[in-house]
Write a structure and sequence with these properties.
Layout (H helix, E strand, L loop, with lengths): L5 E7 L3 E9 L5 E10 L3 E2 L2 E2 L2 H19 L5 E6 L5 E10 L9 H12 L7 E13 L2 E4 L9 E12 H13 L3 E7 H9 L2 H6 L1 E6 L4 E7 L2 E8 L3 H12 L3 H11 L12 E4 L8 E4 H26 L12 E4 L8 H9 L3 E3 L20 H32 L5 H7 L8 H16 L1
Parallel strand pairs: 1-6, 6-11, 12-17, 17-18
Antiparallel strand pairs: 1-2, 2-3, 4-5, 7-10, 8-9, 8-10, 12-13, 13-14, 15-16
Length: about 450
């Protein structure tokens, strides 16, 4: 296999940075060649707040992945999340000059570019514009308008917005780490691609990705993304609370949470106690597991309730918008004991833990299929998809050039292939803008 078939996902998280190298195998599954992981210094609640430290962490993760895969990394697909992300619904329309011609790519681009002109708050930039369904001359619920006739083309859009400065800072970190930015993707979308099945997206599902600094939500229904939100709390605040509540240091709090923590206090007997070594010659501390679980429970309930508010904002309580597949939990925070039961109890929705093995090759390493790596796996998949699109476009250009030389007989062939080139993602355009900005800033 030539080298250009590999793709690298870079998940810049609050607690860890993961670089993951993958490629498609002959069964169209993703094969992970190497993973590097470093402690994330300089990221707070999903937003870079110390460039120098973030660069060091990125380089460390990248070197580790390169060593594991014996591949050199040049381009990366990076995830963007953080507390500055918000999403809104917007509908827009264009009137076509000539309704005798079928609707094509350029009409949709025109419509999307119009949405890009929406006036945002100062310092905000549109990251994704995702068309949901189209209307042509008032006929609703059209999912693929290309090839149809009509004068007025309108669509509902899911628009995701984020802070320009945060996006540029990420670009800066990547460039300074000696890497090229191949693409930017919204992290909840990346995780969703790695963890959810097509059936779940059809039936209606809410993906909750509990990370270190933020909890991301993505809601799908009828196979289309309907709502995204980022809640600025994650596993870190649970650790903080344990630290404060038990007067111990952060490292001990984190270990307690992972080893003995539970989101359901009723599970622990009163006499279960953990002893923690004191600092430098001080007495060890004794902590009851019941208290530990109470602390965790209080904070987890708060996080889940905020997410549930967002699920209701999407409209889960309307019959037509019901999420039949319920909730899927992923991310490092989803490994907390009895979390699934608690989420079901609070929301009354079916819940499962999501592992990113939906598209991974069968012989993948156990560790990689951990919820911890959901975002990274999703970013690798996204990079691979981007490369495929590029290859299809290159092939199409060749086909078109060849055709120009020959007669026009084979015309229908190309028309069939059209939709693959599908809307050059706004993220691609955004990536180019970030690249341009960085080149000019040098």
């Amino acid at each position: 296999m030539e080298n250009n078939n590999i793709s690298v996902g870079l998940d810049i998280g609050t607690t860890k940075i993961v670089a993951m190298i993958g490629r498609k195998n002959e069964y169209d599954k993703v094969e992970i060649l190497g993973v590097g992981k470093s402690k994330s210094m300089g990221v707070h609640r999903g937003v870079v707040n110390n460039i120098t430290q973030t660069i060091q962490s990125i380089q460390q993760a990248v070197q580790e992945a390169e060593a594991a895969a014996s591949e050199k990394i040049t381009d990366v697909t990076v995830g963007i999340a953080g507390q500055h992300i918000r999403s809104l619904q917007h509908s827009d329309y264009i009137t076509r000059a000539n309704s005798e011609m079928v609707i094509d790519e350029s009409d949709i681009d025109r419509l999307i570019n119009q949405v890009h002109k929406l006036v945002m708050l100062p310092g905000e930039e549109i990251i994704h514009v995702l068309p949901q369904e189209f209307k042509i001359d008032g006929q609703a619920e059209i999912t693929e308008p290309i090839g149809m006739y009509g004068g007025r083309l309108e669509a509902n859009f899911h628009v995701v917005v984020g802070q320009v400065s945060s996006i540029r800072n990420i670009g800066r970190c990547i460039k300074s780490s000696g890497l090229e930015l191949e693409g930017i993707t919204l992290e909840p979308l990346a995780s969703a691609n790695a963890v959810l099945s097509r059936e779940e997206k059809e039936a209606g599902v809410a993906l909750i990705d509990i990370g270190g600094g933020t909890t991301d939500l993505a809601v799908f229904k009828d196979g289309i993304i309907r709502h995204t939100a980022v809640i600025p709390f994650g596993g870190n605040v649970i650790t903080e609370d344990i630290k404060e509540g038990c007067s111990i240091i952060e490292k001990q709090a984190e270990l307690l949470k992972i080893k003995f923590g539970s989101a359901w206090p009723g599970e622990n007997k009163d006499n279960e106690i953990v002893s923690i070594p004191g600092l430098r010659g001080r007495e060890p501390k004794e902590i009851t597991l019941k208290n530990l679980s109470k602390i965790i429970h209080a904070r987890v309930v708060e996080i889940i309730e905020q997410v549930y508010v967002e699920i209701k904002n999407y409209g889960h309580e309307e019959q037509k918008k019901k999420l039949i597949a319920g909730i899927v939990l992923t991310g490092g925070g989803s490994q907390l004991k009895h979390l699934k039961q608690l989420v079901e109890y609070i929301t009354g929705m079916d819940t499962r833990i999501g592992y990113p093995n939906e598209h991974l090759a069968g012989d993948s390493d156990e560790d990689i299929a951990s919820p911890l790596f959901a975002t990274a796996v999703g970013l690798v998949m996204d990079g691979l998809k981007r490369q495929e699109r590029k290859r299809v476009e290159d092939v199409e250009e060749m086909v078109i050039e060849n055709q120009a030389e020959q007669t026009m007989e084979a015309q229908p062939e190309v028309v069939v292939e059209e939709p693959i080139k599908e809307r050059r993602s706004f993220l691609d355009k955004l990536t180019e803008r970030v690249k341009e900005f960085l080149d000019n800033a040098e």
